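Researcher: I'm comparing several assemblies side by side, and this is the next one on my list. It has 228 residues spread over two chains. Same procedure as the others: predict the full complex and return the structure.
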Amino acid sequence: QVQLVESGGGVVQPGRSLRLSCAASGFTFSSYGMHWVRQAPGKGLEWVAVIWYDGSNKYYADSVKGRFTISRDNSKNTLYLQMNSLRAEDTAVYYCAKWDGTAVWGQGTTVTVSS
Amino acid sequence: DVVMTQSPLSLPVTLGQPASISCRSSQSLVYSDGNTYLNWFQQRPGQSPRRLIYKVSNRDSGVPDRFSGSGSGTDFTLKISRVEAEDVGVYYCMQGTHWPPMTFGQGTKVEIK
């Protein structure tokens, strides 16, 4: 079945880095744009970034621009989010999602930025 | 950025009764291709979000037909014809017309009276 599985979350100190992964299965990953969306504790949804199906275009929310990098490896059916210079306000559950055609969300991975 | 404003933010409903959520955008969501990229997502307690409706009124596969979306321009509505217990959760509208960034509404919490 169509599935997205995130990993890589954890507790990290402010200013450090973390890389999230999202493994896709059940669909032709290389044909679809992919998104990262986050949800801070007790808060609503915030769109973070999108990458084109072939990686040719990437766009970011202002809150993460210059610190986060979205990428993908279509040979591995995997989406990534490299997060640098992490701040306390980046603490959230991070979801990868596909919205074109059949919509799919992963189960999320929790990132906690704390000293 | 396009601001999405939902109302109400909390919606207590009686089982079997209808429910309606409003979503207004700060600018028209009609894209140059003629489509309006307004989506509705449901997030049940403890679960990931799930898309219910895309392009204003199109139900995703597996979504019960008691859910319907309508609207145009800047005003949109999600309706549940008869609320069931499994409909409890938070509902978000999201625009995908003017981006980046794609923007969500604040969320409307639906609970059973």
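Model: For your comparison table: The first strand of chain B starts at residue 4 and ends at 7.
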